[in-house]
Design goal:
With 63 residues, the protein is mainly α. The chain has 2 helices and no strands.
């Protein structure tokens, strides 16, 4: 297993960090509309699961 950190790794982490902040901000802004307040939890969970499903395959397992 190659343990070197490459530029591609930093780009991948940066893209997923940007996605995290955009989705977190979007889920938070939905909470300001009283009618949509019950959807905040669903949107937050969906956005985090969506991001996680794309990030985990890019991580190498140590085993």
């Amino acid at each position: 297993m190659n343990s070197k950190i490459e530029i591609r790794d930093f780009i991948t982490v940066g893209i997923f960090a940007a996605l995290y902040f955009v989705m977190f901000f979007t889920a938070g802004m939905i909470g300001y509309i009283p009618v949509l307040m019950p959807l905040v939890l669903a949107v937050a969970l969906w956005s985090r699961a969506f991001r996680l499903c794309f990030f985990l395959p890019k991580c190498e397992s140590p085993a």
